[in-house]
Amino acid sequence: MDNALMLGMQTQRVMQRRMDVAANNLANVATSGFKADGLLLEEADQTTAHADEDPRDIRFVRDIGIVHYMEQGPIEMTGNALDVAIEGSGFFMVQGPSGPLYTRDGAFTLTGDGRLVTSDGRAVLNSGGAPIVLDPQGESPTIGRDGAITVAGVEAGRIGVANFAAPGALSKVGDNLWDAQGQAQGQFDGVVLQGAIEGSNVRPVVELTRLIEISRAYQSAAKIVSGADELRQRAIQQLGR
């Protein structure tokens, strides 16, 4: 395969990956606590591309992973006693299939039997890793800045909040949840805010602009591939004559 085809097809592949990431960011612009992603690229130092005059003139890039942007999202006051947001670093602990998972989405509710759960029904864990259970018929709970839940002046539990030295190294596992990937928990140094929800940190205008740029780059790469293929066909026809 000649250089033009290789360069065009590799560019299309990278642009497709970038478009998928940007589109997913836009799809979660209204998802509470969502953290935007970006594509991590590097220049490929070894390729099979060649040039007669100077092979160093040919540059290929490849995607090597996803980077997570962990900046704080906007905090909106809702007044709902079971809505909580984290100001600063940290994650709420929730029950996963094989251990705790983590989220920044603090839109919690109570089930009929008094379990504190996330919007998709996962049990919220306390600081000891056990599900939090409150009296569904009791007074409205008060949640302190350290996550302590008090009802009628008596502590009924404490929301588990985990902190990590490298939060960007956590892995997204779907449903707005994160897996610690074996990373040890550190001391929580943020603040828990009752009656508030953290919004997504996606910037819609930036992502829309990025999608337009990616689409144009993809079209340019497609023209390179099409043009190279057309030249190849003409060369074959001429040689065949």
From TrEMBL:
Quaternary structure, from the entry: The basal body constitutes a major portion of the flagellar organelle and consists of five rings (E,L,P,S, and M) mounted on a central rod. The rod consists of about 26 subunits of FlgG in the distal portion, and FlgB, FlgC and FlgF are thought to build up the proximal portion of the rod with about 6 subunits each.
A GO biological-process term: bacterial-type flagellum-dependent swarming motility
SUPFAM superfamilies attached to this UniProt entry: Flagellar hook protein flgE
Residue intervals of the Flagellar hook protein FlgE/F/G-like D1 domain: 85-151
Flagellar basal-body/hook protein C-terminal domain location: 194-237
This protein's record includes keyword Disulfide bond: no
One GO cellular component, as annotated: bacterial-type flagellum basal body, rod
Pfam families: Flg_bb_rod, Flg_bbr_C, LlgE_F_G_D1
Superkingdom field: Bacteria
Protein name: Flagellar basal-body rod protein FlgF
Organism from which the protein derives: Candidatus Viadribacter manganicus
Keywords assigned: Bacterial flagellum
Domain Flagellar basal body rod protein N-terminal: 16-35
Family named by the database record: Belongs to the flagella basal body rod proteins family.
Coiled coil: none
Keyword set includes Nucleotidyltransferase: no
Cellular location(s): Bacterial flagellum basal body
Signal peptide: none
NCBIfam families: FlgEFG_subfam (TIGR03506), flgF (TIGR02490)
